[in-house]
């Protein structure tokens, strides 16, 4: 039986010299202290426009009650669970991303991974929303870089929103920059350093390649053994000229098929985010409103330099 | 036995003013943070406060300062750090907590000396009561433990003495004095070197050779010497005068383990060199001029004290440098050096001319 570390009732206050092997002394101590006396490592992170969002909601996307459910209450719940799960452990001061990467392969710590990854993804979603979102046409370098991969912004929008709408069940859809791991300079000079990609993560899956085992990029219920194997062995299409270069493999310590990724944008398709404001069949409308509410300035800040550099072509 | 009643103070800070925190500007952990940044400034977000949101907006992630060259390694480095900055802290806000390496890479300042910091660094823990030195009874708060009682050092006394020592160090460095940091126990080397580099002084983390000061002519006879001006620029032309000069004695010695370095402290006393030392409950406090009653066995405590003294030296050096730029520096110096005379240079030129003429005339019959 997998024992879950949740707050135990007052029966834990009884002092006893024997503790069962799954309960460490430290976690018993943290449970016998009153909540006010406990030192909580994790707190709800402040958003840039937290105050305005709490009063008026996110303009064009969520009402104030919707924002309260999606962020204020839900993130507080995740943080509380994180504190309970890591109290007294050596990892109690670790960041959520580090927790997700560390425990991705540990089925006994599945709950900890889920809450850490969900806290990370949820905060990421809200970090690209603002009270005065900047439009993409004001950021020409980013727009051009996206068009290089997707052809047009309309295609990017359609792909992302359709992917999100067709996902059955909650999850996230990410826009990531995937680096070209093949470091050989064939053809001389500079070439494309990587490309943009759209990634899906069901439930609390993580987009980072170092925790690729818990990416949860497909709905395993829809797959058969062959297609699932194909997914697990899939190599990224861009830049994979033969085997990966040695330096790239060594430095990244990635699982097979992984690559260096940097997420810049994501949409949270969990129902509790949009259910109150859009109703049960309002997912499409929510996604359309979300696209108009994206603050592309925040996305541009996250974009790496190599993504916004125009591609240079050298004469042979 | 010394007994004092412990009165719980109300209204004190829940957290010490100095907490080992994160800084966004540092690239390498091996570099010491030059200007001390208050780690709490990121955490002054109060829900509903107006300037809080502004401060959040202002702290933009500016990691892409360097221009990535064609070098793949440089590009990978830049990408790695950009990714770390963008995605590393997202998810939850983790409270600032103790991280041991930060005592060396970003040491606390004298203004961050608090009783909470000293207690967290275990500076109040003394030795067994049977091993004490009665001369430092006035620094001891009381006794703890029934079976193996130990002495507890008064934290307020430690804080006061440490602040005084900081004043001494910054005063000496402000006037261009040389501070020597000594710490010969295992693990103290890095703290000693850091403190000396901040105060622009000297360090020693191995055994002190007896006689280095009293028999300096012999032991340090062959060491390099140089002359620097008020702006710390080396001045050439004194080489022949420096051959006869003895090595410079330190103007202040900071010793992190006086129990093992009593010879050094005795030599300093013979030569009127003031000393600062960490005095535990079993150490003789009269060995040093300015004792700091604290725990010399805890590496964390030693790193805090060395860091704080190094920062004090850094502040004194900064003041001295500012004064030197303006022209405000002490005029009277008893170094006994004479300005290098220019007659010798002309003389050598004359010799060359003479030689040339003699060579020319040598060809004549």
UniProtKB/TrEMBL annotation, chain A:
GO terms for cellular component: cytoplasm. InterPro entries: Mn/Fe_SOD_C, Mn/Fe_SOD_N_sf, SOD_C_sf. Gene3D superfamilies: Iron/manganese superoxide dismutase, C-terminal domain (3.55.40.20). GO terms for molecular function: metal ion binding; superoxide dismutase activity. Pfam families: Sod_Fe_C. Residues 260-301 form the Manganese/iron superoxide dismutase C-terminal domain. SUPFAM superfamilies: Fe,Mn superoxide dismutase (SOD), C-terminal domain, Fe,Mn superoxide dismutase (SOD), N-terminal domain. PANTHER family: 37S RIBOSOMAL PROTEIN S26, MITOCHONDRIAL, SMALL RIBOSOMAL SUBUNIT PROTEIN MS42. Component of the mitochondrial ribosome (mitoribosome), a dedicated translation machinery responsible for the synthesis of mitochondrial genome-encoded proteins, including at least some of the essential transmembrane subunits of the mitochondrial respiratory chain. The mitoribosomes are attached to the mitochondrial inner membrane and translation products are cotranslationally integrated into the membrane. This is Manganese/iron superoxide dismutase C-terminal domain-containing protein. The lineage of its organism: Eukaryota, Fungi, Dikarya, Ascomycota, Pezizomycotina.
TrEMBL record, chain B:
GO terms for cellular component: mitochondrial small ribosomal subunit. It comes from the Eukaryota. InterPro entries: Ribosomal_uS2 (IPR001865), Ribosomal_uS2_bac/mit/plastid (IPR005706), Ribosomal_uS2_CS (IPR018130), Ribosomal_uS2_flav_dom_sf (IPR023591). GO terms for molecular function: structural constituent of ribosome. Coiled coil: none annotated. Keywords: Ribonucleoprotein, Ribosomal protein. One of its GO terms (biological process) is translation. Gene3D superfamilies: Glucose-6-phosphate isomerase like protein, domain 1. Transmembrane segments: none annotated. Residues 331-357 have a biased composition (Basic and acidic residues). Residues 326-365 are annotated as: Disordered. It holds the Pfam family Ribosomal_S2. CDD domains: RPS2 (cd01425). PANTHER family: 30S RIBOSOMAL PROTEIN S2 PROKARYOTIC AND ORGANELLAR, SMALL RIBOSOMAL SUBUNIT PROTEIN US2M. Belongs to the universal ribosomal protein uS2 family. HAMAP family: Ribosomal_uS2_B. This is Ribosomal protein S2.
